[in-house]
Amino acid sequence: MIAAAVLCWPALAVAAGPVYDVDLYALMSGTCRNVTVAGRSYTCKAVAYFHTLRGRSEFTVVLDDPADKSHIISFSGESTERTQDNLFELAVDRMLLKSSDRPRVDGLPVPLVEMSTGSCRQVGSFITRQVSTITCAATDQNGKKYELSFESDGSPMTLRRLRQSTLPSERQRARQIAQLECRLKARAAQVLPRDTTAFMIRCLGEGDGKPADEQR
After folding, report:
1. Which domain of life is it from (predicted)?
2. Which terminal residue of the chain has fewer beta carbons within 10 Å of its beta carbon, N or C?
């Protein structure tokens, strides 16, 4: 699920504004001793850290929720601090909440953004790929509390640096989203592969009011 989140990150972030600039993620192996979302306790399937070129960091938790296989929460913030070589702290300013009842793009839920205050504390180092614990606590603007207590099993974290590229303009972003919406329409209409190009041209033409020939 974390791998799918990385590959489809722009789709997951539409509700908070498109994000195309993830440059690093780390996947941790271990056990969630405690995960609390608005008073409910969960276990977790995976914990990962994301960083973007814009400086935003997120600790993302895939919850083990039998009632919702798409239940994912992220502690997100821009301010980080390393007071020691093996201590990383993140000031949380928002929670990103994904669930099966959220709107979907390309089959994946986009997050509900809740402005929040809190912090995350990681004992360990991305340089050595070793982490022992991660603890997070945040409260959103409605008073709901979110907590994470993660303990590593001692395995090195899986660290990936993603290739950096120029960020698209607002017009390019809008175009990419329109193309994705048209692909979804083609899939829903069960358009045959040989007819997909023509369908996309017509769909995009309808979206921006241009004649189909101009889409070519």
Report:
1. Bacteria
2. C
- Residues 6 or more apart from 103 whose CB is under 8 A from it? 15, 109, 110
Tokens (6 digits) for 56: 């935003």
Tracing tokens 């640096």 back to the chain, one arrives at: 161
pLDDT in tens, 121-153: 999 998 899 999 999 999 999 999 999 999 999
Contact (CB, 8 A) for 47 and 120: no
String of DSSP letters for 137-159: EEEETTS-EEEEEEEE-SPPPEE
Judge if 113 and 178 occupy the same domain.
no
Residues whose CB falls within 8 Å of the CB of residue 160, separated by 6 or more in sequence, listed in order: 6, 24, 25, 26
Q: What is the distance between the alpha carbons of residues 200 and 186, in angstroms, rounded to a whole number?
A: 8
Residue 119 sits at φ, ψ, to 5 deg, of -160, 160
What is the reported pTM?
Answer: 0.67
Look at residue 142 and tell me if it is in a domain.
yes
Question: 155 with 178, same domain?
Answer: no
Burial pattern 58-67, b for ≥16 Cβ within 10 A else e, equals: bbbbbbebee
Angle at which helix 196-208 crosses helix 170-188, to 10 degrees, equals: 130
* Owning domain of residue 33: 22-159
Find out whether 31 and 150 touch, Cβ atoms under 8 Å.
Answer: yes
What is the tally of structural domains in the chain?
2
Amino acid at 175: R
Q: Give the whole-angstrom CA distance, residue 156 versus residue 122.
A: 14
CA distance 63 to 70: 8
